Amino acid sequence: MPDIGVPHAHRHHWYYVWFPLAAAFAWFATLWALLITWLASGRPHYVSQDGNIAYISDVGADILKPLFIVGCCFTGIGFVLSLVAERWLRHSGRLVPNMRKREKVFSILAILGSVIGGAGLILLSIFDTKRHTTLHRLFLLIFIVGVALSAIFTIVEFRWLAKDLPYLRKIKMSYMIKSVLATVLIVLAIAFGITLYYYNDVGAILEWTISFLYTFYLLTFFFDLRASRHVRKGELLYLKDVNGVQNGLQHPVHAQVV
């Protein structure tokens, strides 16, 4: 049962949840603002636009560039902070800790991937496609590769956690949802990279689709971090006991956490 005598600690744990929520909201709101602006303006053909359908970067390089930069900054930083918060909460025993060194290594690699991806996202918004086409596409590639690597490393970490702790259903659920979303996003990103140069309109549709789906990937970290609520520092470190893992020991409260 949660200790109702430590409300301040509970609130402290709950603050971390806002990182992925803020990132997802900023990204989703920015995308909608760009899309609605383009549609409401009568679908104008921008200077940097090649096909009939505008890319996100085409709209973001025009009058809404300040909004695009702010949205990308919030999203990139929020993504990094979400992974850092999860790493810290696992280390401090507020989330299920990594059972072995390998999970910790992949968690750190996922953070590094998010830093690369986040930096790419921020820089591509600053160096827009209208004025800095080559740099913009370079930073777009960095963003895609960084996020993809981060997702792969995170999925590997969760796969090992799910294997070591099969009775924690939320771990397995988070692993499966992340795996499906990441697989779909990576496949679509590869298709986007091909169509970007050969089928402009298809590439634009894929870019908008990938971007909106990325919102849901960010939200998966909200469900991970919210499990730290009502869990005090060090409370879940007992799960690192090798005998506990092997024997499938579980606690009526702890069995619900991620």
Keywords:
about 260 residues; mainly alpha; 9 helices; disordered N terminus; disordered C terminus
Q: If you had to describe this structure to a student in words, what would you say it looks like?
A:
The structure is a single chain. The protein has 258 residues and is mainly α. It has one domain. The chain is 71% helix and 0% strand. The protein contains nine helices and no strands. α7 packs antiparallel against α8. The longest helix is centred in the middle third of the chain and has 32 residues. It is elongated and about 55 Å long.
What integer value in Å does the Rg equal? 20 Å
Domain count: 1
| Distance, first to last CA | 17 Å
Tertiary shape = elongated
As a percent range, the share of helical residues equals over 70%
Please report the total strand number as a whole number: 0
Separate helix tally: 9
Strand proportion, as a percent range, falls in under 5%
Structural class: mainly alpha
Average pLDDT reading: 82
Low-confidence sequence ranges: 1-10, 242-257
Write the element-wise H/E pattern from the N-terminal end onward.
Answer: HHHHHHHHH
Question: How does the major sheet shape up?
Answer: none
